[in-house]
């Protein structure tokens, strides 16, 4: 049975995740050497702490290999992206996980994976203990009741959910850090030095929220915004790209953790810069994806097989893109994509794309940048959400790639609503 959670903001945020479908490091032996070369390289700043005190160059695999993963990681948000990321922390990083999520099935999946790892024969007597998975009722409980937690990773749907998880006065992450501080202060005698906790927000949220949150995180704790790109296939493969915002010290601390879950991490600037880069990236994706769908539909109406057009023409010409190679909207084109079997099951839900485009428009207004394509693209993906509701489907379970069907008719005509090509195979 799921642990009881208070009906506060942190609980509301976890409900949203469940329906969307920590930094002293371990010994080097706990981190696979193959991950060393993938660690994030951060420019040095005065007072910045390197991931390893013995490192002289962040670009050297030999020096990077002494960095390691967090002993215990609190993971908040085990949805379509969060669950495979947490699984990689278990499998590749051998991190203990304190899971914070309302989904019994997601937590059970992590626990089953931990049990499978524990059942493997130990190759040497000195092999590290297998990782464990426990469950906490709230973000605060994860920090207060589990003193070994040295990193918190969050993967949440929107800014309001991130605000609840971090700032809820009763159950949030900041409340957990404060509870730890009080516990140390009340232990009698001189309070021990407070160990640093790394806070790593992988959600796609407002850059201004991240900057404001950074101002509230008390030292010696560190915060990075590290939104991701690559979708669920890259999350499963541990091949995500992280766009990182934060101080050089925070980026260096986050580097080994991000290397377990991804293949590339780019420091974009201070706090909020990672989120700004992600919003810009998703704006480009949304516009590019809709344009690709429009071109495929045009070709299909002219008698060109859309599968051939996507796989054999676009992929070998100037129209080539990640959309065509990894996430084509044409059924049968890319194995493992939401469109492959004609189901268009998220994936990356259409409401999340609408949310990200709204973020892009808010950011454009804030900085005075023109964004006519963001507005046009948002209207297209809003039609995907509306079409799902008309069919009686849960929009959160509908991938954004279904814009190919609901706006452009799946290459067969009849777009603009619930009809069109591809409908017969929709689950």
Would you write up a description of this structure?
The protein is built from 16 helices and 9 strands. It is of the alpha/beta class and 427 residues long. Strand 2, helix 4 and strand 3 form a beta-alpha-beta unit. It has helices at 9-19, 61-64, 82-91, 104-119, 139-144, 159-167, 173-185, 207-216, 231-237, 248-261, 273-301, 306-313, 322-326, 350-367, 372-391, 403-406; strands at residues 72-76, 96-100, 133-135, 149-154, 198-201, 222-225, 228-229, 240-245, 262-269. The longest helix is centred in the last third of the chain and has 29 residues, at 273-301. The protein starts with 8 loop residues before the first helix and ends in a 21-residue tail after the last helix. It is globular.
Structural class: alpha/beta
* Helical residue percent band: 40-55%
Q: What is the distance, rounded to the nearest whole angstrom, between the alpha carbons of the first and last residues?
A: 30 Å
Order of helices and strands: HHEHEHEHEHHEHEEHEHEHHHHHH
Strand line-up of the largest beta sheet: 3-2-1-4-5-6
The overall pLDDT average reads 83
Number of strands: 9
Low-confidence stretches: 1-7, 18-39, 41-70, 416-427
Basic shape:
globular
Strand content: 5-15%
The main sheet comes to: 6 strands, parallel
What gyration radius follows from the Cα positions, in whole Å? Answer: 22 Å
